[in-house]
Amino acid sequence: MHARNLTKRFGALAAVNAVDLDVPRACVYGFLGPNGSGKSTTIRMLCGLLTPTEGDIEVLGLRIPQQAEALKRRIGYMTQKFSLFDDLSVRQNLEFLATVQGLSQRAGKARVDDLLRWYRLDDRQQQLAGTLSGGQKQRLALAGAIVHEPELLFLDEPTSAVDPESRRDFWEKLFDLADDGTTILVSTHYMDEAERCHRLAILDTGNLVADGTPAELTAKLQGRTYLVRASSPRQAKDTLASHPDVLSVAQIGNELRVLTRGSNADADALRGCLDGTNVTAEVTSVEPNLEDVFVVATHGQARREEQLA
Fold first, then answer.
1. Which of 138, 142, 149, 151 is nearest to 47 (CA)?
2. Please, which residues have CB within 8 angstroms of residue 203's CB and are 6 or more apart in sequence?
3. PANTHER family, per this entry (predicted)?
């Protein structure tokens, strides 16, 4: 899947601004970004549900939106909101979707039987979908999205309403699909999910501000992240936040995680910043993580030169 100069404007608002994307086959490709960053709008353009204002899109060898109709049977789509029928049973929902996707009665029954077993819903197949738990609804929605064995699967923040254990289980299912050759594009605002992706794009105010593997993105911040153990964390946080070379300070329990703007602020500089206060502090260098990448990448239009795109 490829997109060049992908742009969507709503009046004067550029919801997506000149985005270039390359998504490899059989890859779990993540979209990370704050609310309103353009993730959902981008996904809807890529799958042909929304016409771009500008740009070129090629998905599975098809030009989009011109060949969007031909794309429908080759992709799956799962939204954040449960969109199946509450008053139909689990099996009825999947059988209906199999029929909509053109499977014969015999092939549809076999496929539904497999999905019920794979997604641990076989003991719930006669239960009304509306009475399922959040995690069960999520598994049913995923099963419905792949009932026709799509080559490409779009997931728009699919785990926002489920517990951590269900989220972990869901991601295991995604990697099973990727191992079988399915390309997956998933938007999320969870850092632990972003770390699981093979590749990751970060969007901010409609702009692509970072793109690469999680390891590539974090490597660009090497030497810019520090852990501070202080006798008075709140006082240390206020002092460090005023340093011109400190980009962010986050308190995690009794420790502070400090992200600097560049190599000018090293451990000695941070210790020096705390000199003259009544705070006793230990400053050590730590490995950057995706939350640090996210802070730098989405720091705002005024500091685009610091971004990682």
1. 151
2. 16, 19, 31, 32, 33, 37, 38, 39, 42, 209
3. ABC TRANSPORTER G FAMILY MEMBER 20 ISOFORM X1, ATP-BINDING CASSETTE, SUB-FAMILY H, MEMBER 1
The answer to whether the beta carbons of residues 251 and 155 sit under 8 Å apart is no
Query: Which tokens hold the place of 165?
Result: 């254990």
Question: Is it the case that residue 300 has pLDDT exceeding 80?
Answer: no
Which residues are CB-neighbours of 10 under 8 A, at least 6 positions away?
none
Q: List the Cα angle 28/31/33 in 5-degree steps.
A: 155
Does 2-211 match 223-286 in CATH topology?
Answer: no
Q: Give dist(CA 292, CA 260) in Å, integer.
A: 10
Whole-angstrom distance between the N-terminal and C-terminal Cα of the chain? 19
By the 8 A CB rule, do 211 and 202 touch? yes
Mean pLDDT calculated for residue range 263-292 = 87
Here the tokens at position 52 are 């771009």
Q: How many CB atoms lie within 10 A of CB 271?
A: 14
Q: Where is average pLDDT lowest: 160-164, 219-223, 226-230, 238-242?
A: 160-164
Domain boundaries, the chain: 2-211, 223-286
Query: What's at 17, amino acid-wise?
Result: N
Fold designation for 223-286: Alpha-Beta Plaits (3.30.70)
Side chain identity, residue 119: Y
For 243, phi then psi, to 5°, come to: -70, 130
The CATH superfamily of 2-211 is P-loop containing nucleotide triphosphate hydrolases (3.40.50.300)
